[in-house]
Design a protein that fits this description.
By secondary structure, the protein is an alpha+beta fold. The protein has eight helices and 14 strands. It folds into three domains: 120 residues, Beta-Lactamase (2-Layer Sandwich), CATH 3.30.450; 77 residues; 150 residues, Heat Shock Protein 90 (2-Layer Sandwich). The longest helix has 48 residues.
């Protein structure tokens, strides 16, 4: 598309052949912020039932307080032409990434009449790119982990064996001071071993040992464990489990993910608070919501919390949430997080199609 003279409404563009079949939304915005949609894709992107070819005020398509409206208004007022400009576009409750191009429309005297806009929905390309970046990062982690795991584990095994021998001897000789020192060292070695295991878990494909699992029983067991931990921290804890189908899952892995999410919730509340666990089914999914009343997650960190090695904890390794995400993804589910400045909710979703009834049917 090239800059060219048009009439006041830019209506000639509505006659362009092939616009209805174009996989992009095309529309015209006049200087007075009147908008003309040229194809159905433009109507979909702006989430409007106004038919293509009709000219209306831009407010009829977009809320004048929205960032999308303000961006288009600024584009027209400043004669701003964009090329391959990626925009976060929020309409009809969905957040998309769109590729935007804009072109000046001028009359024969060189006066600006408005802007032609071509907008392409990138769909899942942005998400795919983010996933590929994470995959590349985990692949690098995998190479490092695989390379050093053997070198780390061998000396650790030797040191651990000698410490366990000293532990038995000191216990027999009632040497309590030395015994305490040895126990501290063994705990530290255990921490290093767990870190190596987590690195290897993230860096290579895992075998998911699926079997029939009573999800109601599993979540109630987790709830009981968490309640004991919460009482020690003076945190109120409740666990509500609706009627749930049995699923074919790796019970140990699902329990590991649940316990990590509940541990995170407890650690977020230093001076009391409330932890809520709610399990239910909705829309073909078994959902488990874990909510806390902690300080919440800042909006500028929301996109980073599932990145490997990212942590806000002083002594955290930043591997827990990525492992949880990996476990649930391996079961065909997903984890979402919401935080509005006070409190955080992690929502784990597993497909009900993995239920025993669905599989037998």
């Amino acid at each position: 598309m090239t800059t060219q003279p048009v009439d006041a409404a830019g209506q000639h563009a509505a006659n362009w052949p092939g616009l209805e079949w174009l996989n992009s939304g095309v529309f015209f915005i006049s200087k007075s912020l009147q908008i003309t949609l040229y194809n159905a894709q433009a109507c979909r992107l702006l989430d409007t039932t106004i038919p293509a070819g009709q000219t209306v005020a831009m407010e009829a398509c977009l809320n004048s307080d929205s960032e999308e409206y303000q961006m288009l208004q600024t584009m027209v007022s400043m004669w701003r032409e964009y090329r391959d400009f990626v925009v976060t576009w929020e309409t009809d409750g969905r957040t998309r990434h769109v590729l935007l191009d804009s072109y000046k429309a001028i009359d024969d005297a060189g006066n600006l009449l408005g802007m032609h806009v071509v907008m392409k929905d990138l769909g899942n390309f942005m998400t795919l790119d983010q996933q590929m970046q994470k995959t590349d990062k985990l692949a690098t982690v995998g190479k490092v982990a695989a390379g050093v795991a053997h070198e780390i584990r061998n000396p650790l095994t030797t040191v651990k064996g000698f410490l366990q021998m000293f532990e038995r001897r000191f216990a027999q000789q009632n040497r309590s001071d030395e015994l305490d020192y040895v126990k501290v060292m063994l705990e530290e070695i255990g921490s290093v071993e767990n870190l190596v295991s987590e690195l290897l878990f993230l860096s290579k494909p895992q075998k998911v040992a699926r079997s029939a699992c009573s999800m109601g029983r599993l979540i109630e067991e987790v709830g009981q464990t968490v309640k004991q931990q919460a009482e020690a921290r003076k945190i109120e804890c409740s666990c509500t489990v609706d009627s749930l189908p049995d699923l074919v899952v790796d019970e140990a892995l699902i329990k590991q993910a649940l316990l990590h999410l509940t541990d995170n919730a407890l650690e977020a509340m230093e001076a009391g608070g409330a932890l809520r666990i709610h399990a239910y089914t909705a829309g073909g999914w078994l959902k488990i919501d874990i909510s806390d009343t902690g300080p919440g997650i800042p909006y500028y960190l929301m996109d980073k919390i599932f990145d490997a090695f990212f942590t806000t904890k002083e002594h955290g390794a930043g591997l827990g949430l990525p492992i949880c995400q990996r476990i649930i993804a391996d079961h065909g589910g997903e984890i979402r997080v919401s935080s509005k400045g006070f409190g955080t909710t992690f929502s784990m979703s597993l497909p009900v199609q993995q239920s025993l009834g669905a599989l037998s049917g």
